[in-house]
Write a structure and sequence with these properties.
The structure is a homodimer. Helices cover 27% and strands 41% of the residues of chain A. By secondary structure, chain A is α+β, with helices and mostly antiparallel strands. Strand 2 of chain A pairs antiparallel with strand 2 of chain B, so a sheet runs across the interface.
Chain lengths: 169, 169
């Protein structure tokens, strides 16, 4: 998304050794450079001692280049890959706990079905719904649920990788 | 999962004000307390200035209680919710870039179909596959792809919330 000040979101994938404190080193560095992290997701890779972070930050192109260079100064950082937003596969998952009773339940199930979302838990007072997709799809879905009583929203943040036809592969 | 030393994974949801540096404050605190973060995912909530983190750390029950108390000392931390692993809705998304050509492609598409995974990008040399589920499902899927050439794996880390029947709601 574009923000008001002309800055755009940048996505960077960072491969790190999973040593204690590496996550806080990476987030501190990005923050110290004056960037706010829009979202971050970090999980294990196939190499057990390696983690892959997907970080979304807002900034101009030059500053992002600077961040990439700085990240390499952290010993545990193995690789920094800029993700091209026009040529990426990007996905996010969102869990939403929402109140629904009586007629409301039926209406909500219709919205859920249209968005190909899934009900992962049903209580007497409502649902937990899971939706997967790009951030825009999740935003639209949340907007439609807005009139209902949303109790909790948990988003993973984007995971992204460059498509096969992307030269940065 | 249980680890060798008898420690188990604990999942904590942390609601924070999205002020600069809050992410690094949270990760630093957890790390300083001697815990390694197994996975972290952070995304926006419906309140624009709020973020929700799902953090998985390994430790004994008492230390996790300590972490929860300590987290409240960070000004931007609004709420800390322990997630009960037996009564939670937990999901993770994983993107896998994998080489596949010729006969291999067909074989791989069968595995993808069985796991209800999705092909989100096709190149002349392979696929990018998206799979959603709990961590065990994703681990099994990755194990099946192991004989093939996996180029990149990006996991979001778990997002989780307590089910409706959970007293911690």
């Amino acid at each position: 998304m574009n923000s008001d000040n002309g800055y755009t979101d940048h996505i960077v994938a960072v491969l790190v050794h999973n040593n204690p404190g590496v996550l806080s080193k990476v987030t501190s560095l990005v923050t110290r450079r004056g960037f706010n992290i829009d979202s971050i997701s970090a999980g294990p890779t196939r190499q057990n001692d390696m983690f892959r972070l997907t970080i979304v930050v807002k900034g101009d192109d030059r500053s992002i280049e600077q961040i990439q260079k700085q990240l390499y100064k952290i010993i545990d950082v193995v690789k920094v890959v800029p993700i091209n937003k026009n040529r990426m596969a990007g996905r996010e998952i969102c869990l939403i706990k929402v109140k629904a009773s009586g007629k409301e339940r039926h209406e909500m199930l219709q919205i859920i079905s249209v968005f190909k979302a899934n009900v992962v838990d049903v209580g007497t007072n409502g649902f937990i719904v899971e939706i997967t997709g790009d951030s825009d799809k999740i935003d639209s879905f949340l907007a439609l649920l807005e009139p209902h009583q949303i109790i909790d929203v948990a988003r993973t943040g984007i995971v992204a990788m460059n498509r096969w036809d992307n030269p940065y592969n």
